[in-house]
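Following up on my earlier message about BES. Here are the inputs again, as you asked, copied directly from the submission form:
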Amino acid sequence: MTSNLKINLSITSPNEMLSDKNETLIIGIQENGNSQSSKNIFNKASKGLMNTLLKRKEFSGKVNTSCYIPALADQKDKKFFLLGLGNTSDKFKDDDASKLITKICTLAKTANTKKVSLFLPEIKFEKRDFSWFLQNLSMQLESSTYKYIFDGKKEQKNNILASVNLLINSKKDIADLRKSISIGTNIGVGINRMKELGNTPANICTPTYLGNTAKELGRKYKNLSVKVLGEKEMEKLGMHCLLSVGNGSVQESKFIIIEYKGGKKTEQPEVIVGKGITFDTGGISLKPSPAMDEMKYDMSGAASVLGTMEAIALIKPKSNIIGVVASAENMPGSKATKPGDVVKTMSGQTVEILNTDAEGRLVLCDALTYVERFKPKNVIDIATLTGAVIVALGHVASGLMSNNQKLADKIIDAGHASMDKAWQLPLWDEYQGDLDSNFADIANIGGRAGTITAACFLSRFTKKYPWAHLDVAGTAHGSGKAKGSRGRPVPLLTNYLLSQS
Ligand code: BES
Ligand code: MN
Ligand code: ZN
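Thanks, got it. Here's what our run produced:
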């Protein structure tokens, strides 16, 4: 993917903001401020309109309020959105900053034009700085320009925001701010890559398609090297558990490895592993029909790995990062795995498959054994693994479980910093007994704590390195009317990886 959006940054005083050439201006207004504040400058330029709005209580400058002004007497070719930023002494918390960014993206979209200018006085944060804000703003502006184009219809792209002229009134180092904007935009590109893969229907987006997309990334970015293994190669590696999931499908299962080497040769890599079930029917343990179409999103973990690797290839941090995808299609059929079947994993442990719908852990366990060869610094797997995580956390936070608290804390921090939150659930030994089997080393389901026991299953394969598991079944995509990939957790993953380099 390439960036949809050009973000241009310049330092401007409120006096100059009105001479901006763009037709749409979003002007940040603070409730208080001196005669040089955007409020007073705008009031002067509009011959008192600002004061009228204040008097009539149509706009106060209260944070996240806005007011549309179709034109001014002497600026008929411009439209204005006033955006409330609260008091100059206000310090934005992370959640407030997130709401403000959402508001800006909505206004930019409402403008329905290709170019928008945004004037922002320097706002303050409780524990962040302005460059952090600009990184997240750029990321979400870029991601808000994403649109799924069906049927190759180019005209659907009309009037999608293509450039933002960011006018700020700041004494900060502009080169530094520009760097943050570039990082944010690149993460946005990764988010959009994930969205496109997630939204692509499963008759097109097969394991082979994911493999080809990875190879395409390898050709596009010289700093990525890509390998795609087919079923024969996986057979040789002993990945029988992964392979058992694709048994009922005509689509060949694939195993994808993407390497980024930005650090010293000897430096241990960070590894991310994605679940790539391109469609999850449940297999012989067939799912009910309602909303089964959404199981095309069961490759969201894989898509987040590809999106994150693309963002990393663009940002070029000085560290080593490896992305791995375990991909299969979970179908019923005469060759499909049946409940009660016992398979041998790459690790040598055997699994009694009691429910073929608990397939994500079956592809991931072999991938988690495979990555031991990289002697990873840390491993994070990302998977739409359980419906139960939606019951626990809804669509707000991804579920996080880990065998290493330091790693878990870093991931939680990265989630806050990128407005892509994760919440930790316990991975205590007491839950492990739920996976006891009479016929194999482990059963693939058990107990009532579905999200935790799924992670317990994975933990049997991750003893050799610090590991964390992100259950993104509730966060990766929207449902019903909001159906569509949300590009999560690309922001969290990228932020984590950059903080590690
Ligand atoms: N892909 C599903 C999980 C899922 C459910 C993702 C809803 C997104 C929305 C996963 O493979 C699955 O079917 N999990 C089962 C596990 C159960 C059989 C132990 C589930 O959650 O019901
Ligand atoms: Mn399933
Ligand atoms: Zn699944």
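One observation from looking it over: The two ends are 24 Å apart (CA to CA). Hope that helps, and feel free to reply on this thread.
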